[in-house]
């Protein structure tokens, strides 16, 4: 009877260790948010008095999680 309790306690310790490892391990992917600026311009560089101009310039401040390299502009028809 004592042997069964010992096996159960060892298994409980193994399961508790696995749970602690999975819960406490570093989450590198979730913590790092990769946001890329769509433009190198900043809103502070412009003088915009009209509301419509401000809305257009707000596109400059937008960010995207995906980044497209600008090396081959002809590929996108932008040459």
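-> sequence recovered:
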């Amino acid at each position: 009877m004592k042997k069964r309790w010992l096996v159960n306690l060892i298994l409980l310790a193994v399961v508790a260790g696995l749970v602690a490892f999975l819960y406490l391990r570093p989450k590198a992917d979730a913590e790092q948010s990769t946001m890329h600026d769509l433009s190198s311009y900043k809103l502070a560089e412009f003088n915009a008095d009209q509301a419509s101009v401000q809305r257009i310039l707000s596109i400059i401040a937008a960010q995207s999680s995906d980044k497209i390299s600008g090396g081959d502009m002809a590929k996108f028809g932008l040459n």
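The chain has a mean pLDDT of 77.
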